[in-house]
Hints:
By secondary structure, the chain is an alpha/beta fold. The chain has helices at residues 23-40, 58-69, 84-100, 110-114, 118-125, 129-148, 159-171, 175-180, 203-213, 229-243, 247-258, 260-270, 291-299, and strands spanning 12-14, 19-21, 49-54, 73-80, 105-109, 152-154, 184-185, 193-195, 276-277, 284-285.
Amino acid sequence: MKCRVCRGPAIIDIRRHNANFCSEHFLKLCRDQTAKAIAQFDMLQPGDRVLVAVSGGKDSLAVWDILNELGYDAEGFYVGLGIGECSDVSAEYATRFAHARNLTLHTEDLLRDHGFDVPHGSRAAKRAPCSACGLTKRHLFDEAAHRGGYDAIVTGHNLDDEAAVLMGNVLHWHTDYLARHAPMLPARDGFPKKAKPLVRLTERETAAYCVLRGIDYLVDECPMAVGNKHLAYKEQLNELERTSPGAKFDFYFRFLLDAQDRFAEAEAERTDISLQACERCGAPTNNDICSFCALTERATRPVPLTIGRKPQEVAS
């Protein structure tokens, strides 16, 4: 097996490209594909200050590393969600990565700074754990970007992630989500710009990138993601990819090129929602308080406890 570029020994095959690559040219492929996504969707500009949402997993660490290799001013932001040992270990990986490369990592702890963690918050608010987690991270990332004056938030969502989400939204015809399903969302109504530069790379490729770059990362899935439908969609798409290389890429990018604008235009005509500042935190919302502040209120509300046994009636 020889590298397509230099004809030296290859270490990985990329079937959708019908090509093999050596270590040097595979790493270059990853950087080039990331740069191509940034340019294709106008995600970032030279000189932008970028805040990377870091989880300690392969994708967030890979995108942070690639952005710095491409010359962007990228700092990291990690949120401790209080999901048992998983959160402790992921924080260690993120911290070690930042220290080893002399990068700036900002941290926030949900329990310490806001009085609840995701497991308790999801139960108190009667939300699925992944829903409470996503809501929390989106709010805290937006808040950190606004507070620090960053031009964009970057997340490590890869092609597998985006294709699986798209599959679920198409199967259930969630047209409002399809309208916003794009690798870059421009700044609007007080929300910062959000970009996903890894959309041209698969999970396998980001994992290989980390191995070759010597990046240690959290391998295990979040324990609270068990039963998440998107994991099942990923498995189904992987099986399709096995028999039809390039199917995931075509599915996702044909939607972006041929259909996404139509959903966005239809949604813009259907909805005209004016936003106001949350009374608690100032974040944009269409209610008096934003969803995160409502979640915080429910999760930190005192719960009355009954101590001892109920007194028995005294016979007359």
